[in-house]
Amino acid sequence: MMLSSKQRAFLRGLAVEADTILMVGKSGMSPDIVKQTDDALEARELLKGKVLETAPLSPREAAEQLARETGAEVVQVIGAKFVLYRAKKKDPAIVLPKVKK
Questions:
Q1: Residues 71, 37: contact at Cβ < 8 Å?
Q2: 33 near 25, Cβ under 8 Å?
Q3: How far is CA 86 from CA 47, 53, 69, in A?
Q4: pTM to 2 decimals?
Q5: Residue 64: is it exposed, middle or buried by C-beta count within 10 angstroms (0-12/13-18/19+)?
Q6: Residues 6+ positions from 9 with CB-CB distance below 8 Å
Q7: In this predicted model, what pLDDT tens digit does every residue of 30-49 receive, in sequence order?
Protein backbone atom coordinates (compact mmCIF):
# COMPACT_ATOMS: atom_id res chain seq x y z
CA MET A 1 0.00 0.00 0.00
CA MET A 2 1.43 3.34 -1.01
CA LEU A 3 0.51 6.33 1.10
CA SER A 4 -0.71 9.47 -0.62
CA SER A 5 0.86 12.81 0.33
CA LYS A 6 -2.36 13.72 2.18
CA GLN A 7 -2.27 10.47 4.19
CA ARG A 8 1.46 10.93 4.89
CA ALA A 9 0.79 14.49 6.16
CA PHE A 10 -2.04 13.17 8.37
CA LEU A 11 0.26 10.52 9.88
CA ARG A 12 3.07 13.06 10.38
CA GLY A 13 0.62 15.15 12.40
CA LEU A 14 -0.22 12.17 14.62
CA ALA A 15 3.47 11.31 15.03
CA VAL A 16 4.28 14.74 16.51
CA GLU A 17 2.58 13.69 19.77
CA ALA A 18 3.95 10.12 19.72
CA ASP A 19 6.76 9.02 22.01
CA THR A 20 9.97 7.67 20.51
CA ILE A 21 9.77 4.01 21.50
CA LEU A 22 12.42 2.35 19.35
CA MET A 23 16.17 2.96 19.43
CA VAL A 24 18.57 1.56 16.86
CA GLY A 25 22.04 1.53 18.35
CA LYS A 26 25.51 0.19 17.67
CA SER A 27 24.27 -3.38 17.13
CA GLY A 28 22.33 -2.07 14.12
CA MET A 29 19.54 -4.14 12.64
CA SER A 30 19.21 -7.19 14.90
CA PRO A 31 16.34 -9.71 14.74
CA ASP A 32 15.36 -8.33 18.15
CA ILE A 33 14.92 -4.78 16.75
CA VAL A 34 12.81 -6.15 13.87
CA LYS A 35 10.61 -8.10 16.34
CA GLN A 36 10.22 -5.04 18.60
CA THR A 37 9.20 -2.99 15.56
CA ASP A 38 6.73 -5.61 14.39
CA ASP A 39 5.16 -5.91 17.87
CA ALA A 40 4.94 -2.13 18.30
CA LEU A 41 3.32 -1.67 14.87
CA GLU A 42 0.78 -4.38 15.69
CA ALA A 43 -0.09 -2.64 18.96
CA ARG A 44 0.05 1.02 17.85
CA GLU A 45 0.13 1.18 14.02
CA LEU A 46 2.33 4.30 14.18
CA LEU A 47 5.87 4.04 15.52
CA LYS A 48 8.51 6.68 16.11
CA GLY A 49 12.09 5.50 16.24
CA LYS A 50 15.51 7.02 16.60
CA VAL A 51 18.87 5.96 15.21
CA LEU A 52 21.68 6.66 17.69
CA GLU A 53 25.01 8.12 16.55
CA THR A 54 26.72 4.80 17.29
CA ALA A 55 24.52 2.92 14.80
CA PRO A 56 26.22 1.52 11.68
CA LEU A 57 23.44 2.74 9.36
CA SER A 58 21.70 6.02 8.59
CA PRO A 59 18.19 6.83 9.85
CA ARG A 60 16.89 6.52 6.25
CA GLU A 61 18.52 3.08 5.82
CA ALA A 62 17.19 1.89 9.18
CA ALA A 63 13.64 3.11 8.44
CA GLU A 64 13.57 1.54 4.97
CA GLN A 65 14.99 -1.77 6.17
CA LEU A 66 12.54 -2.00 9.08
CA ALA A 67 9.65 -1.07 6.77
CA ARG A 68 10.69 -3.80 4.30
CA GLU A 69 11.03 -6.44 7.01
CA THR A 70 7.74 -5.61 8.77
CA GLY A 71 5.52 -4.68 5.81
CA ALA A 72 5.25 -1.09 7.02
CA GLU A 73 5.45 2.29 5.25
CA VAL A 74 8.07 4.93 5.96
CA VAL A 75 6.09 8.07 6.83
CA GLN A 76 9.07 10.38 7.35
CA VAL A 77 12.72 10.59 8.30
CA ILE A 78 13.91 13.80 9.98
CA GLY A 79 17.39 14.01 11.46
CA ALA A 80 17.98 10.88 13.53
CA LYS A 81 14.25 10.11 13.91
CA PHE A 82 11.88 8.18 11.69
CA VAL A 83 8.20 7.29 11.66
CA LEU A 84 6.73 4.01 10.38
CA TYR A 85 3.08 3.09 9.81
CA ARG A 86 1.28 -0.21 9.30
CA ALA A 87 -2.48 -0.62 9.61
CA LYS A 88 -3.79 -3.41 11.81
CA LYS A 89 -5.42 -6.22 9.90
CA LYS A 90 -8.40 -6.21 12.26
CA ASP A 91 -10.02 -3.01 13.51
CA PRO A 92 -7.40 -0.39 12.58
CA ALA A 93 -7.27 2.39 15.18
CA ILE A 94 -6.02 5.01 12.73
CA VAL A 95 -8.43 5.91 9.93
CA LEU A 96 -6.53 7.45 7.02
CA PRO A 97 -8.08 10.19 4.88
CA LYS A 98 -9.60 8.82 1.69
CA VAL A 99 -7.62 9.11 -1.53
CA LYS A 100 -9.40 10.69 -4.51
CA LYS A 101 -9.02 8.64 -7.67
A1: no
A2: no
A3: 9, 26, 12
A4: 0.91
A5: middle
A6: none
A7: 999 999 999 999 999 999 99
